[in-house]
Amino acid sequence: MLKAKDIMTKNPVTVTPELDISAAAAILLDNGINGVPVVDTKGSLRGILCQSDLVSLQKKFPLPSVFTFLDGFLPLTSLSSMEKEIKKISASTVSDAMTESPITVDIETPVDEIAGLMVDKKFHSLPVLQGDKLVGMIGMKDVLKTIAK
Fold first, then answer.
1. Which of 39, 59, 107, 138 is the most exposed place for a label (fewest CB within 10 A)?
2. Which CATH superfamily is domain 4-61+74-148 in?
3. For 119, phi and psi rounded to 5 degrees?
4. With bands split at pLDDT 50, 70 and 90, how would you rate the model's confidence at 87?
5. Distance between CA 8 and CA 45 in Å, rounded?
6. Three-state secondary structure readout of 42-68
């Protein structure tokens, strides 16, 4: 049975949290990839930046629903979720837009489990770890290639 180590892209393109968001978008486009791991200066995985994270920068800020109570307005959403939404929409660096603590797979994870994760969770890219070290990336194309062979 094929495993992550058999289909992953080794030594994937990575970005740092401090990178400008427009430079990160160019990296995704130039490399024809959906997602890129975000690593710190020690090479530790900090998050993942996907096309969907960048596309969300273009959406409008949804005004929260409110109701009045004793002549005051109370939002129906938490302030922390509103702050996260504002931070994502106004992102200028990768760290502002990335998904922190992404779901990862191990090099020994079978391809059927990877496919299940991608379908069930709607992931297009998954970082591959060996221990706590980033060793690869798997995209939907990598899984599709197993069918085409």
1. 59
2. CBS-domain (3.10.580.10)
3. -75, -50
4. low
5. 16
6. CCCEEEEEEHHHHHHHHCCCCCCCEEE
SS (H, E, C) the chain: CCEHHHHCEECCCCECCCCEHHHHHHHHHHHCCCEEEEECCCCCEEEEEEHHHHHHHHCCCCCCCEEEECCEEEECCCHHHHHHHHHHHCCCEHHHHCEECCCCEECCCEHHHHHHHHHHHCCCEEEEEECCEEEEEEEHHHHHHHHHC
Domain ranges of the chain: 4-61+74-148
Closest CA to 52 of 39, 33, 69, 80: 33
